[in-house]
Amino acid sequence: MSYSLAEPSIIDKVMKGEIKLNYKNVKIKEEESWMLAGEIVKALEKYGVEVIDGDYPIIVVYLNKFLIIIVPLGKKLSVTGELSLEIFEKISNIIEKLKDNNKKIVIIYFSPGGKLLLSAYLFLGYLIEKHDVGILFVNGGVDEVLEVIEKLGIKGSFAPEEEDYVDLKAIS
To answer: With contact defined as beta carbons under 8 Å apart, do 60 and 103 qualify?
Structure first.
């Protein structure tokens, strides 16, 4: 069986609104999302930061080579495939606007103590390839988000302490 990224997938159909997913099982914790956003913005005061209001905050950090989009989800959230697509769908217009800046776009899904379920991992992998963005899931504290941003700004890549390696240069 062959597969081509040019063919519409179920994810493409969801993004176009041709298929509706049931989002009622897992939701972003809006109140916690806004509290986390406040902590992140305070920690990133030395960077150019923009907060985009909506159902939940979306934080854009402007670096020399990267545009970082942080989506604070709330604490201890288990991100499903459906939720990962819902989030990406809501920020896709932001991504399209920012793509013109000739900078690599990196999206950080942030949930302290949270988990990224297999379906979300697979869907996000597809979105990385299809839309040429980097996507990271951070389940530590605000300090880990800051560490990711600092290392991206300095090195152009991020290597977590667990020695797993995420080379964002290779993706671009």
So the answer is: no
CA distance 64 to 67: 8
Print the SS3 string covering 112-160.
CCCEECHHHHHHHHHHHHHHCCEEEEECCCHHHHHHHHHHHHHHCCECC
| The token pair that represents 115 in the structure block | 């988990």
CA distances from 83 to 39, 79, 107 (A): 23, 6, 14
CA atoms of 27 and 16, how far apart (whole Å): 21
Closest CA to 10 of 168, 92, 93, 130: 130
Q: Which two tokens stand for residue 30?
A: 């809006």
Q: pLDDT per residue over 81-120, tens digit each? A: 888 888 888 888 888 877 767 788 999 999 999 998 888 8
Q: Are 51 and 58 in contact (CB under 8 A)?
A: yes
**Which of 137, 141, 81, 70 shows the shortest CA–CA distance to 105?**
70
Phi, psi values for residue 69, rounded to 5°: -110, 115
pTM, to two decimals: 0.78
